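Tokens in:
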């Protein structure tokens, strides 16, 4: 049977996944600016045509990489844990400290949506999935506030190169949970439905923005 780079093409059912994994490694080593079909093909050790076959544009490749990174952190505390603020602070700490380079990589992919509109719906998927998971424990508006605070704390830690302060995070999250609910106001089109949410990875799912 001809080799993958020769005159024929060997069937490789894992090639698409290997290309995504290679793209994540390239971004981790060189940043978004270093990502190209050619650099990913070299990293994945596949013909250049394979990357363009599976991913017509770099945005297509980044979308796949971001979606995989999104799966890396979906904080879903144990339903029986009465200390929701403490559980979320602990899960956030695991994400930020267990493998900091990977946390930085996931946030880089997440923030790439600022310059690449095609990535924004995928970035929003993470916010919506985490909000939906938390809406099992709190109302939808509070769930979104918790996600926003965790995102902000994560960015502060990574951008200022400081150590994660779990006690501080727990205190801030506790304040949100303890606050009196404000007026409902107009319907929030982005609010998560408090009904049953699709089950996600429990706690910190390692390998995969991110926030």
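Residues out:
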């Amino acid at each position: 049977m001809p080799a993958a780079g020769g005159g024929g093409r060997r069937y490789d059912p894992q090639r698409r996944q290997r290309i995504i994994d290679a793209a994540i490694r390239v971004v981790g080593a060189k940043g978004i600016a270093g990502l190209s079909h050619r650099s990913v093909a070299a990293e994945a050790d596949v013909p250049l045509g394979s990357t363009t076959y599976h991913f017509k544009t770099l945005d297509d490749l980044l979308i796949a990489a971001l979606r995989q990174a999104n799966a890396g952190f979906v904080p879903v505390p144990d339903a029986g844990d009465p200390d929701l603020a403490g559980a979320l602070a602990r899960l956030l700490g695991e994400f930020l400290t267990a493998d900091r380079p990977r946390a930085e990589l996931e946030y880089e992919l997440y923030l790439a949506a600022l310059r690449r509109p095609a990535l924004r719906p995928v970035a929003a998927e993470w916010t919506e999935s985490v909000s939906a998971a938390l809406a099992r424990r709190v109302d939808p508006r509070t769930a979104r506030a918790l996600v926003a605070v965790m995102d902000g704390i994560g960015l502060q830690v990574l951008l200022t190169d400081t150590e994660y302060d779990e006690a501080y995070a727990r205190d801030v999250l506790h304040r949100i949970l303890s606050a009196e609910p404000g007026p409902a106001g107009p319907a929030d089109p982005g609010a998560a439905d408090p009904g049953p949410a699709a089950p996600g990875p429990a706690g910190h799912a390692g390998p995969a923005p991110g926030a």
